[in-house]
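Q: Hi! First time doing this. I have a protein sequence and I read that you can turn it into a structure. Is that right? Here it is:
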Amino acid sequence: MAGKAEIVEAISKQTELSKKDATSAFEAFVDSISDNLKKGERVAVPGLGIFSVADRKARIGINPQTKAKIKIAASKVAKFKAGKDLKTLLNKKRK
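A: Yes, that's right. Below is the predicted 3D structure, encoded as C-alpha coordinates:
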Protein backbone atom coordinates (compact mmCIF):
# COMPACT_ATOMS: atom_id res chain seq x y z
CA MET A 1 0.00 0.00 0.00
CA ALA A 2 1.30 3.44 -0.86
CA GLY A 3 1.13 5.94 1.98
CA LYS A 4 1.79 9.66 2.15
CA ALA A 5 5.59 9.25 2.08
CA GLU A 6 5.49 7.10 -1.07
CA ILE A 7 3.09 9.47 -2.82
CA VAL A 8 5.21 12.51 -1.91
CA GLU A 9 8.31 10.67 -3.18
CA ALA A 10 6.58 9.94 -6.51
CA ILE A 11 5.41 13.57 -6.86
CA SER A 12 8.93 14.77 -6.11
CA LYS A 13 10.50 12.50 -8.74
CA GLN A 14 7.92 13.17 -11.47
CA THR A 15 7.86 16.95 -11.04
CA GLU A 16 11.45 17.58 -9.88
CA LEU A 17 10.05 19.41 -6.85
CA SER A 18 11.86 19.16 -3.54
CA LYS A 19 10.30 16.76 -1.06
CA LYS A 20 9.26 19.77 1.02
CA ASP A 21 7.46 21.36 -1.94
CA ALA A 22 5.95 18.02 -2.98
CA THR A 23 4.66 17.53 0.58
CA SER A 24 3.11 21.01 0.52
CA ALA A 25 1.47 20.31 -2.85
CA PHE A 26 0.09 16.96 -1.67
CA GLU A 27 -1.25 18.44 1.57
CA ALA A 28 -2.86 21.35 -0.34
CA PHE A 29 -4.52 18.82 -2.68
CA VAL A 30 -5.91 16.77 0.22
CA ASP A 31 -7.00 19.91 2.12
CA SER A 32 -8.81 21.23 -0.96
CA ILE A 33 -10.74 17.98 -1.39
CA SER A 34 -11.54 17.83 2.34
CA ASP A 35 -12.73 21.45 2.47
CA ASN A 36 -15.06 20.95 -0.48
CA LEU A 37 -16.46 17.73 0.97
CA LYS A 38 -17.10 19.50 4.30
CA LYS A 39 -19.25 21.98 2.34
CA GLY A 40 -21.18 19.05 0.87
CA GLU A 41 -19.75 19.60 -2.61
CA ARG A 42 -18.62 16.92 -5.04
CA VAL A 43 -14.99 16.97 -6.15
CA ALA A 44 -14.10 15.69 -9.61
CA VAL A 45 -10.44 14.82 -10.19
CA PRO A 46 -9.87 14.29 -13.93
CA GLY A 47 -8.30 10.91 -14.67
CA LEU A 48 -9.08 9.65 -11.17
CA GLY A 49 -12.75 9.96 -10.22
CA ILE A 50 -15.33 11.78 -8.12
CA PHE A 51 -15.33 12.26 -4.36
CA SER A 52 -18.71 13.01 -2.75
CA VAL A 53 -20.54 12.97 0.58
CA ALA A 54 -23.45 10.64 1.30
CA ASP A 55 -25.85 10.61 4.23
CA ARG A 56 -26.05 7.34 6.10
CA LYS A 57 -29.37 6.85 7.91
CA ALA A 58 -29.62 5.95 11.58
CA ARG A 59 -30.05 2.23 12.05
CA ILE A 60 -30.09 -0.56 14.59
CA GLY A 61 -26.94 -2.66 14.83
CA ILE A 62 -25.88 -5.62 16.93
CA ASN A 63 -22.88 -5.63 19.24
CA PRO A 64 -20.98 -8.74 18.09
CA GLN A 65 -19.67 -9.48 21.60
CA THR A 66 -22.86 -9.11 23.61
CA LYS A 67 -25.43 -9.61 20.82
CA ALA A 68 -27.26 -6.58 22.26
CA LYS A 69 -29.06 -4.28 19.85
CA ILE A 70 -27.56 -0.80 19.65
CA LYS A 71 -28.61 2.41 17.95
CA ILE A 72 -26.17 3.65 15.32
CA ALA A 73 -26.57 7.38 14.72
CA ALA A 74 -27.00 8.91 11.29
CA SER A 75 -23.73 10.13 9.80
CA LYS A 76 -22.09 11.49 6.70
CA VAL A 77 -19.58 9.35 4.83
CA ALA A 78 -17.13 10.08 2.05
CA LYS A 79 -17.67 8.19 -1.20
CA PHE A 80 -15.41 7.72 -4.19
CA LYS A 81 -16.46 6.68 -7.68
CA ALA A 82 -13.63 5.74 -10.00
CA GLY A 83 -13.57 7.56 -13.32
CA LYS A 84 -13.52 5.94 -16.74
CA ASP A 85 -9.75 6.43 -17.20
CA LEU A 86 -8.95 4.77 -13.87
CA LYS A 87 -11.34 1.88 -14.56
CA THR A 88 -9.73 1.34 -17.97
CA LEU A 89 -6.25 1.38 -16.44
CA LEU A 90 -7.21 -1.12 -13.74
CA ASN A 91 -8.85 -3.50 -16.20
CA LYS A 92 -6.09 -3.39 -18.81
CA LYS A 93 -4.75 -6.83 -19.63
CA ARG A 94 -1.17 -7.37 -18.48
CA LYS A 95 1.26 -8.89 -20.96
